């Protein structure tokens, strides 16, 4: 790799596409670092008709510019290297994009599965609730087997009747009046 050298900041062109990626908070952070310890990593530029085009180091470039520097340390690279670097970064970016899309797809499928599961659970709960509402309530209903005839006779002959029908039966047998 070529040796770093000093380039005039006003001779470096930043493509419009790159300018859109500037993060002011990062520029501020780098500017503070440059004030404390100086510029540690050179930018990359390529020659282009009497000027230089910024290839890499946008935030370092903007930080030096914001500090009022007139020059910046950089490395001059050829268009071929830039092209190779672009191809490499494009393939890396494409791979990163594929990974991101796969993660998003997996998350979407998990979310849809969870929604289907929740809907199925809700449907089961609604069905169970409807069945419970249709069944007669057993609250207040005695689950007592019917008494045999002899038990009924014993109850009515001398014991205190438990129901109106037992009382009526007892009254008839005893010849009583209602």
What's this, in brief?
With 178 residues, the chain is of the alpha/beta class. The protein is 58% helix and 13% strand. Helix 2 crosses helix 3 (58-66) and helix 5 packs across helix 6 (164-173).
Overview of the structural elements:
The protein has helices spanning 16-19, 24-37, 58-66, 79-134, 149-158, 164-173, and strands at residues 5-8, 12-13, 43-48, 51-56, 71-76. With 178 residues, the protein is of the alpha/beta class. A five-stranded mixed beta sheet has the order 1-5-3-4-2, covered by helices on one side. The protein is rod-shaped, with a radius of gyration of 45 Å.
Which helices and strands occur, and which strands form pairs?
Elements: E1 5-8, E2 12-13, H1 16-19, H2 24-37, E3 43-48, E4 51-56, H3 58-66, E5 71-76, H4 79-134, H5 149-158, H6 164-173
Parallel strand pairs: 2-4, 3-5
Antiparallel strand pairs: 1-5, 3-4
Helix pairs in contact: 2-3, 5-6
Amount of helix: 55-70%
Distance between the termini: 121 Å
Number of helices: 6
Apparent shape: rod-shaped
List segments where confidence is low: pLDDT < 50 over at least 5 consecutive residues. none
| Helix/strand/pairing category | alpha/beta
How many strands appear in the DSSP assignment?
A: 5
Element order, helices and strands? EEHHEEHEHHH
- Portion in beta strands: 5-15%
Q: Provide the gyration radius in Å.
A: 45 Å
Mean pLDDT: 81
Spatial arrangement of strands, main beta sheet: 1-5-3-4-2
The largest sheet, given as strand count, sense and whether it forms a barrel, is: 5 strands, mixed
């Amino acid at each position: 790799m070529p040796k770093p050298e000093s380039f005039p900041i006003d001779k470096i062109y930043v493509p419009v596409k790159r300018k859109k990626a500037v993060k002011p908070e990062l520029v501020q952070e780098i500017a503070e670092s440059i004030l404390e310890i100086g510029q540690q990593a050179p930018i990359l530029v390529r020659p282009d008709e009497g000027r230089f085009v910024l290839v890499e180091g946008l935030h370092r470039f903007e930080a030096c510019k914001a500090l009022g520097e007139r020059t910046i340390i950089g490395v001059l690279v050829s268009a071929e290297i830039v092209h190779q670097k672009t191809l490499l970064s494009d393939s890396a970016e494409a791979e990163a994009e594929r990974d991101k899309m796969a993660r998003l797809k997996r998350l979407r499928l998990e979310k849809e599965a969870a929604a289907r599961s929740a809907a199925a659970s809700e449907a089961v709960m609604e069905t169970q609730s409807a069945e419970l509402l249709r069944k007669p309530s057993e609250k207040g209903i005695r689950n007592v087997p019917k008494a045999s005839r002899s038990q009924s006779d014993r109850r009515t002959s001398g014991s205190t009747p438990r129901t109106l029908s037992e009382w009526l039966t007892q009254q008839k047998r005893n010849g009583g009046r209602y």
